[in-house]
Specification:
The complex is a heterodimer of chains A (361) and B (394). Chain A is an alpha+beta fold. Chain A has helices spanning 11-27, 30-38, 45-54, 73-85, 92-104, 109-117, 209-245, 257-286, 291-317, 328-338, 345-355; strands spanning 122-124, 140-142, 145-154, 161-165, 170-175, 180-184, 193-202, 204-208, 247-248, 251-252. In chain A, the strands form 3 sheets. Chain A has a 4-stranded mixed beta sheet. Chain A has a 4-stranded antiparallel beta sheet with strand order 2-3-7-6, with no helix packed on it. In chain A, strands 9-10 form a two-stranded antiparallel ribbon. With 394 residues, chain B is of the alpha+beta class. Chain B folds into 3 domains: 4-105, Butyryl-Coa Dehydrogenase, subunit A, domain 1 (Orthogonal Bundle), CATH 1.10.540; 110-217, Butyryl-CoA Dehydrogenase, subunit A, domain 2 (Beta Barrel); 237-361, Butyryl-CoA Dehydrogenase, subunit A, domain 3, CATH 1.20.140. Chain B starts with a helix and ends in a 20-residue tail after the last helix. The chains are: A alpha+beta (361), B alpha+beta (394). The A-B interface holds A 1, 4-8, 240, 243-244, 251-252, 254-255, 257, 259-261, 263-265, 267-268, 271-276, 278-279, 297, 300-301, 349-350, 352-353, 356-361 and B 242, 251, 254-255, 258, 261-263, 266-267, 269-271, 273-275, 277-279, 281-282, 284-285, 288-289, 292, 294, 298, 301, 304-305, 364, 366-368, 370-372, 374-381.
């Protein structure tokens, strides 16, 4: 490790957080998100337009001379914390981070600039559960066109362009209108999956798939931990608020020591997650030689914490937590799906075994 | 305000006037104190220059580069971390001038007479009595426990009950106690590790002149908060490299002894490694917050995290060692001067770390503190607030 990571938030980052939180308060209230998932089209185009185009946040990871904002993963991580707090149904992680990282690894500046502007949405056509360096399915490249079907592609339903790995080792850009995109009923209602099928779809070769996919999934895993942090923080804060208010046995339920201790333990987990997530974002931002370890630690730590936070929130809300009306289920579903996204905690621990030389028997 | 350049100039002056190579260690430390370079954030005349605390590192680096001796801070941790800030905050001018210099140089070691057999988590219920002899000395009787360094200490910070007729928090007074008084008896307290790192201290008719009272009569609980808060700051200020804590020895054993590895231990080791790294990063983040002048509530959680990790990691290490895990290096009763949680072998680490969730605030009490002060949840029901100490259940 060359330099000490900066684990704090700058004033600018805090200002960015406040602006995103304001925007989401206007566009993504819990009741609105629940109503939207019931329509079968959970994504929120108005909120995306405001966030991506209006605030210019889709281009944070793209240099200014390539059509972006020239910011870093540190700022993108702050945006993701807020999106996690709101379980916002927006393709930010999938388009502005994962697809964008894949394009940064290729020479495709026109597409990159389009994604950075927020006017088009991209999706990497790799199943959401695949970790960086893991095996992924490819389609057949034959006669100058793509053939085959891929499953488990997050946010594909709203993508304008799909980045598709093929059996010749290339990564191809395919216009979504040239593919058949079929939503899959998904555990996570706010980041749904879809199958994408190609029947002789024309594709434009962007570059080698392997390094682009690896880079994209690594950044996805690293910054997902910031989204999980936001999610965990919301569930903790909301549960504490509720337990101060809710009374049984003639006293606030939050005054019972058994519950106080559980919430204090959860707070400690969230505090630790903040440091781990900040460390991953800083490593990605500075291009530190510690990126692989920082990302694996953050993701191995974040998944169980976010799930624990959501599960505790449900249990401690009692019966209301079990209802469709209360938003805690959106957080639980997101947290559990996130525990698989870009590799499970176990997959990241396995990666660490090699990275830090603690090898299996 | 004294800036870094000024501190470096003064440090150079000190080094020129007292070259470490040819100066007696104690003479050098005294000169350093008198030059205001001991703890630069203390006031002038008391070992400091009223400079920002963060600039101490500048002085320390320049002194270390010239091979200057230090005051062996690990040996005098209670004096530096607890007694000194309290004396600074509540002492009279005379007390500050008398005690701080030999405390800092290590000429006089300090210990802490707070906990009692009947007052652990509920420290304010303490029963050691101090009675004033008509306008003269205080006469103290009682028993203290878990006192590290009592057998080498010259002085103690002591809290004792001076008024049993008021509720417990209000009847306590804070004293500076002479450990060479014939009424002080120090007995080693042997622990589960086999050694006696702590002591029991029996106090029988010990006379303390009123000039060694710190703060007002009955204000001892408030004064003690300064002591205890500084203990927590000291715990939060550390900077660890990766694998710098309890995970280090077990990771090294894993690498060096492939024949000990099993799949079950591998899963548990990796999980603990990740948790130890997250806790290390949290401590580093806390340190960065302190440096940036934005202390957060995270400090309250660090001890909780490290206590659990130390226990689980050392427990894993005993299992990893297999047949060796069945052995223990040495049960001889010893009196270590320094506490090193990571010292000795895996069995010692396992047993010693059991104390980490008890000493300096039990995990259960700290969880209450986090829940109430950080999360704002309702406090525990109190039945003792308005009851005179003498009427409490015991």
């Amino acid at each position: 490790m060359s330099t000490q990571p900066d684990l704090l938030y700058s004033e600018e980052e805090e200002a960015l957080r406040a602006a995103v939180r304001d925007l989401l308060a206007d566009h993504c209230d819990a009741a609105g998100v629940i109503a939207r998932v019931e329509t079968g089209a959970p994504h929120d185009p108005a909120a995306w337009k405001a966030l991506a185009e209006g605030m210019g946040l889709a281009g944070l990871l793209v240099p200014e001379d390539r059509g972006g904002q020239g910011a870093t993963h540190r700022e993108a991580a702050v945006v993701l914390e807020e999106l996690g707090r709101a379980v916002a149904p927006l393709p930010y992680l999938t388009s502005a981070v994962v697809a964008t990282e894949a394009l940064l690894a290729c020479a495709a500046d026109d597409l990159l600039a389009e994604l950075a502007s927020g006017r088009r949405i991209g999706a990497l056509a790799v199943a959401l559960n695949v970790p960086a360096g893991g095996a992924y399915k490819v389609v057949r490249f034959e006669g100058g066109a793509l053939h085959g079907e891929l499953t488990g592609v997050a946010d594909a339903a709203v993508a304008d362009v799909l980045l598709v790995p093929a059996d010749d080792g290339g990564l191809y850009a395919v216009d979504a209108s040239a593919a058949t995109v079929t939503p899959q009923p998904s555990l996570d209602l706010t980041r749904p999956l879809a199958t994408v099928a190609f029947d002789g779809a024309p594709g434009r070769l962007l570059g080698d798939a392997e390094p682009a996919v690896r880079r994209a999934l690594r950044a996805g895993a690293g910054l997902l931990s910031s989204e999980q942090l936001g999610l965990a923080e919301w569930t903790l804060t909301e549960t504490v608020r509720y337990l101060k208010e809710r009374k049984q046995f003639n006293r606030p339920v939050g005054g019972f020591q058994a519950l106080k201790h559980r919430l204090a333990q959860l707070w400690l987990e969230v505090v630790n997650l903040r440091a781990a997530a900040r460390n991953a974002a800083d490593a990605l931002a500075t291009g530190s030689d510690d990126i692989d370890v920082a990302v694996a630690v953050a993701q191995a730590f974040a998944a169980p914490v976010a799930v624990h936070a959501a599960e505790e929130a449900l249990q401690l809300h009692g019966g209301i937590g079990m209802t469709w009306e209360h938003p805690v289920h959106l957080y639980l579903k997101r947290a559990k799906a996130d525990a698989i996204a870009y590799g499970t905690a176990g997959a990241h621990r396995e990666a660490l075994a090699e990275l830090v030389d603690l090898r299996a028997p | 305000m004294t800036d870094a350049a000024e501190l470096r100039r003064r440090t150079a002056e000190l080094l020129a006037a007292h070259p470490p190579a040819t100066t007696d260690r104690l003479d050098f430390l005294r000169a350093r104190f008198d030059a205001g370079l001991a703890w630069v954030h203390y006031p002038e005349g008391l070992g400091g220059l009223g400079a920002p605390r963060s600039l101490q590192a500048v002085v320390d680096a320049d002194l270390a580069a010239e091979g200057a001796p230090d005051n062996d801070p690990r040996r005098i941790g209670i004096g530096l971390g607890m007694a000194a800030p309290t004396i600074l905050a509540y002492g009279t001018e005379e007390q500050k001038r008398r005690y701080l210099r030999p405390l800092w140089t290590g000429e006089e070691v300090w210990c802490q007479l707070f906990s009692e057999p009947g007052a652990g988590s509920d420290l304010a219920a303490l029963g050691t009595r101090a009675v004033r002899e008509d306008g003269g000395d205080w006469v103290v009787n009682g028993q203290k426990v878990w006192t590290s360094s009592a057998h080498v200490a010259r002085w103690a910070i002591l809290i004792a009950r001076t008024d049993p007729d008021v509720p417990k928090h209000r009847g306590i007074t804070y004293f500076l106690c002479d450990m060479t008084d014939p009424g002080i008896e120090v007995r080693p307290l042997r622990q589960i590790t086999g050694e006696a790192e702590f002591n029991e201290v029996f106090i029988t008719d010990v006379r303390i002149p009123d000039s060694r009272r710190l703060g007002d009569v009955g204000d001892g609980w408030k004064v003690a908060q300064t002591t205890l808060n500084n203990e927590r700051v000291a715990i939060g200020g550390m900077r660890l490299p990766r694998e710098g804590g309890m995970i280090g020895p077990v990771a090294r054993t894993w690498r060096e002894r492939p024949e000990l590895r099993t799949h079950d231990l591998h899963q548990r080791l990796l999980k603990l490694w990740v948790e130890a790294e997250a806790a290390r990063l949290t401590a580093e983040r806390l340190r960065q917050q302190l440096v940036a002048g934005q202390p957060g509530p995270e400090g309250a959680g660090m001890k909780l995290a490290f206590a659990r990790l130390n226990q689980e990691i050392s427990g894993l290490e005993v299992e990893l060692r297999g047949e060796e895990g069945l052995l223990y290096d040495d049960w001889t009763m010893r009196r270590p001067e320094l506490v090193d949680f990571v010292g000795r072998d895996a069995g010692y680490r396992y047993l010693r770390s059991k104390g980490n969730s008890i000493e300096g605030g039990t995990t259960e009490v700290l969880l209450n503190i986090v829940a109430e002060r950080v999360l704002g949840l309702p406090p525990e029901p109190r039945t003792d607030k308005d009851v005179a100490w003498k009427d409490l259940a015991r």
